[in-house]
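Exercise 7.
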Amino acid sequence: MDLTETLPAPLLPLPADAGGHPFGRCPPLWADFVAVDRDGTVWAFEVRPVAYEEAGMWGNTRVGAGGFGPIGKLKATVPNWEDTLYEWSAGNWINATALRKGRVQDSTIASLLVIAVMVLVIVGIVLLKLATHAA
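Solution. The predicted structure, written as tokens, is:
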């Protein structure tokens, strides 16, 4: 018996709690994303889907945007369905919202490091020119 089907929606386990498969479902090999609609339908997507908030469901942005299909259904509705998008990354299913936040933080840190190095180079050039003119 799949425990994810008996838990209330806010307590849905993370993929690791479901034997490494999102929501206890084994997605097809082509799927890089798994998400759950508000009604509890579990979907697999080849490309990142978008959330259609009015309808409470996930979908592709255009026809031919990659494969997708239902892979199961939870017994409960999922009020927090917008937080159920998982991405296959580095051999694990990771919550895509958390993954995106981590990537933004990493790129922000990298940008700040580049700016700091550029400032140090400019200060070094200015100091070198001042030392050259003073001599």
